[in-house]
Amino acid sequence: MTVLVAGATGTVGGIVVRRLAAAGVPVRGLTRNPDAVLPSGVEKAVGDLSDASSLAAVFAGVSAVQLFMNWEDQGAVVDLAVRSGVRRIVLLSSDGTPDEALERRVRDSGLEWTILRPGEFAANKIDIWGPAIRAGGPVREAYPDVVGVPVHEADIADVAVAALTGDGHHGRTHLIRGPEALTHREQIRLIGEAVGREIEIEEVGHDQARQDLIATGFPEEVADHILHYFVEWVDAPPVPVSLEPITGRPGRTFAEWARDHAADF
Q1: How many percent of the chain have pLDDT more than 70?
Q2: What's the rounded Cα separation, in Å, for the pair 120 and 249?
Q3: Global pTM?
Q4: How big is the CA angle at 26 (ends 25 and 30), to the nearest 5 degrees?
Q5: Which residue blocks in 62-123 are alpha helix, DSSP H?
Q6: CA distance 225 to 208
Q7: Residue 30: helix, strand or coil by DSSP?
Q8: Under a CB-based contact definition with an 8 Å cutoff, are residues 152 and 180 in contact?
């Protein structure tokens, strides 16, 4: 039976469909973009999670589905999964601001459910710090010594694949974080090592950091959302989580993530 992955071209979904296809699992990738190119062996389905009425054919023959939290009412999509005979549902939620209503809908669906709550995506650094690093200038930071535990997107995908295809995940909520606690200063140093040059840090105030994020292209509410966590972590830093009991391997370090993404900087 087929596994349906929503957000098949996304940061995590793109890896999940590749992992499933490589393992010989029949996989259908859901995307909003009719021109999207998916990996070999992945069936493309075009549709929008915000319009469940358009997805009946997409869910036909599906045994397991991965959804992702996108701040739209997906309750109707969960209901469609139930009506379509889906047996297992995996929801990619969030550690910081989970969609509690959607999580509740998934838990109450009667399906085999797993909720994934990833913390800070390491990939966010590409958008936050990437423009300054690519320009060759210093990274302007309001909280250079705040501690985070960024997680490699490949580790999130590995947990998702385990939950979609393996046993022992039903009724569980998996917290997904990186394997090590690092300050922003340490993270920037590791990116510098990956790209082969030292990256300077210019310390600025909170308001200036907010203006910098907005000038980079972040909407105001997203800039505030990002900085909110940095402020929160000053007094209550997140702690690492071992994913090895789920994936069978240690979590990827930030240095490994930086090497994997050196070209993005």
Answers
A1: 99
A2: 20
A3: 0.95
A4: 120
A5: 75-83, 100-107
A6: 15
A7: strand
A8: no
With CA atoms as reference, report the closest residue to 81 among 44, 52, 101, 107. Answer: 52
pLDDT class of 167 with cuts at 50, 70, 90: very high
Residue 2, C-beta contacts closer than 8 angstroms, at least 6 positions apart: 26, 27, 28, 43, 61, 62, 63
Query: For all residues of the chain together, what is the average pLDDT?
Result: 95
**What are φ and ψ of residue 172, in 5° steps?**
-115, 150
Question: Shortest CA distance to 156 belongs to which of 227, 93, 70?
Answer: 93
Q: Are 87 and 63 in contact (CB under 8 A)?
A: yes
Beta bridge partners of 116: 92, 174
Q: In the numeric block, which tokens belong to residue 125? A: 């650094």
Residue 74 near residue 102 (C-beta atoms within 8 A): yes
Domains belonging to the chain, first-starting first, are 2-118 (3.40.50.720), 124-149+179-238+250-264 (3.90.25.10)
Q: Quote the CA–CA distance of 173 and 165 in Å, as a whole number.
A: 16
CA dihedral 116, 180, 123, 184 (to 10 degrees): 130
- Single-letter amino acid, residue 127: D
Q: What pLDDT, on the 0 to 100 scale, is given for residue 53?
A: 85
Residue 223 tokens read as 């800039």
Measured N-to-C along each axis, helices 220-235 and 206-216 cross at an angle, to the nearest 10 degrees, of: 140
Task: Answer yes or no: are the C-beta atoms of 109 and 145 closer than 8 Å.
Answer: no
- How does pLDDT run across 192-246, given as a tens digit for each residue? 999 999 999 999 999 999 999 999 999 999 999 999 999 999 999 999 999 999 9
- With a CB cutoff of 8 Å and minimum separation 6, the contacts of 106 are 67, 78, 89, 91, 113, 115
